[in-house]
Design brief:
By secondary structure, the chain is α/β, with parallel strands linked by helices. Helices cover 48% and strands 21% of the residues. α2 (37-52) packs across α11, α2 crosses α12 (264-274) and α11 (248-259) crosses α12. Strands 3, 4, 7, 8 and 9 form a 5-stranded antiparallel sheet that branches. Strands 1-2 form a two-stranded parallel sheet. The protein contains 13 helices and 9 strands.
């Protein structure tokens, strides 16, 4: 009887140890992201590596920028790889920065501003004040989701440049890109809220309007943000996210594949399989 009890105790202990070792794999990591083409690409790549290479279950949470930051800050989301700093998401960093951990830059060389097709004969945001240009554009700037950092900055640009007769049209990143593509295909004038990396710059000849007042700021970076406590709760997820870093060219490859008809999951899987060396640097030192 004693031998049997001892055996059961040892078995239970072994099960508990194994459960503890695999707990992180069984936990679900919640990744928050905004429905920008760039963040759809990056978050799906992160998901693919976590699931395929590290055996971690992932849940993706598509939200607007404000709830994305709030979710990581209050712990309802574990992480995001979509923080545009120092300018675009500056207000969110100010509001939530003390309740969030910044793991640093995962992509260098981003830019935001007002973009137009190269065939348009304007060079600067100042040129939008021309009565002729305003009439051609129907005094509209095609934007994305309300509350997005670039929308807030564009509202400031409208004020700074005296464009009070313009309307900033709220839509979504997908709808904005569709409007741009339609106008481009028909050689029509259009101005949109733009950012790079984005597939539209690979598929169309576009340029940013000069911003002499520097409302949009200079080049930015995308940062990885995680909830406090993630390092203790999910150390290998934390280490991977801390080591995740790629280039605008990498991101563009995924975005172009998605634009070409692949699902985000398929495009992410194809990129991960085609870039084993880079993925290996992200997962280095993780058991």
């Amino acid at each position: 009887m004693k031998k049997k009890s001892l055996g059961l105790m040892l078995t239970a202990l072994l099960v508990a140890v194994l459960a503890g070792c695999s707990a992180e794999s069984n936990d679900k990591v919640k990744l928050a992201y905004v429905a920008w083409d760039s963040e759809i690409a990056s978050t799906n790549v992160v998901k693919e590596v976590l699931e395929a290479k590290l055996g971690v279950n992932v849940e993706m949470l598509q939200v607007d920028a404000g709830p994305m930051w709030a979710g990581v800050a209050d712990g309802s989301a574990d992480a995001m790889v979509a923080a545009w700093l120092p300018g675009t998401h500056a207000s969110y960093l100010e509001k939530y920065g003390n309740d969030i951990e910044d793991l640093g830059v995962n992509l260098n060389g981003t830019k935001v501003g007002l973009a137009v097709p190269a065939y348009m004969n304007i060079q600067s945001i100042e040129d939008l004040k021309s009565a002729e240009t305003g009439a051609e554009l129907d005094h509209k700037i095609i934007g994305i989701e309300p509350g997005a950092g670039i929308m807030t900055t564009t509202e400031k640009a409208i004020e700074s440049y005296g464009l009070g007769d313009y309307t900033l049209v709220e839509s979504s990143s997908a709808a904005m890109a569709q409007e741009l593509q339609k106008a481009y295909n028909n050689n029509k004038p259009i101005v949109v809220t733009g950012w790079t990396p984005h597939w539209m710059f690979a598929n169309m000849d576009l340029r940013y309007l000069e911003d002499p007042k520097n409302v949009y700021g200079g080049d930015e970076q995308i940062h990885t943000m995680v909830r406090k406590g993630l390092k203790d709760d999910m150390p290998k997820v934390y280490k991977f996210l801390d080591q995740f870093e790629w280039t605008p060219e990498d991101m563009a490859e995924v975005m172009v594949q998605i634009q070409g008809g692949k699902s985000p999951e398929e495009a992410a899987k194809a990129w991960v399989e085609s870039n084993p060396d880079k993925v290996a640097t992200w997962t280095a030192g993780i058991e």
